[in-house]
Design a protein that fits this description.
Chain lengths: 130, 130
């Protein structure tokens, strides 16, 4: 598979065959851009959050999906997990330095898209600020 | 739902409640970062491509999933579709101006991640160029 860049128009500088299902970079991009991964990373940009706070922040996410998404992001070293030895234990999540780097283009994407959508069509505008 | 920003730490400048499942921006972010959407957008960054070329570029995508992904991206005005009146008709896809803007942060994300992964662990390096 080495040298097997299947991407039409690939350039010599390309380091990975990310269009291949076995590529480690593709796996990580898939995690970061997963159904819920993107919202967890954006949510954690401003504050470290407890599990239940994340769950409340992201409308529609189930406890099971949040736990699964966090597990993958922690494995990828994008998110850290801190357990305080209280009863019951308090678990907090935050972005690692790498997670913070990765959350930047996600935030850019999100800003681009919200700027594009016309305010008049937005039933969920949060503030009448412009 | 107006004014119902559920995101903890939200600031007055936030225009949409993207953490809400009904938010139009959330829908579009979900399409752009969907399992296959991200790869279609990155593939089309360098060249306009025919349907079968896209399918060959993206390892593991089925014809059905590619058709469905393209339909959504065309609806969102991120991708255009051109049909040439030949027999059989030739269908070409490319990025709209907005699609090109949106593909930039996706490419940044992808570059960040591929730079992070150590070359020595990469079974799918495409070239021995560094």
């Amino acid at each position: 598979m080495v040298g097997g860049l299947q991407f039409k128009g690939a350039e010599p500088g390309d380091r990975y065959d990310v269009f291949h299902t076995d590529c480690p970079a593709r796996d990580m991009v898939d995690h970061v851009t997963s159904r819920w991964g993107v919202w967890v990373l954006i949510s954690l940009r401003r504050n470290d959050l407890r599990f239940f706070e994340l769950r409340e922040s992201i409308h529609g996410i189930s406890e099971k999906m949040l736990a699964q998404t966090l597990r993958v992001l922690v494995q990828d070293a994008l998110v850290w997990r801190k357990v305080e030895p209280t009863t019951p234990p308090q678990v907090t999540y935050g972005l690692t330095e790498f997670g913070r780097e990765v959350s930047e283009p996600l935030t850019d994407l999100f800003d681009l898209i919200t700027r594009r959508l016309p305010p008049a069509d937005a039933p969920h505008r949060s503030r009448a600020d412009d």
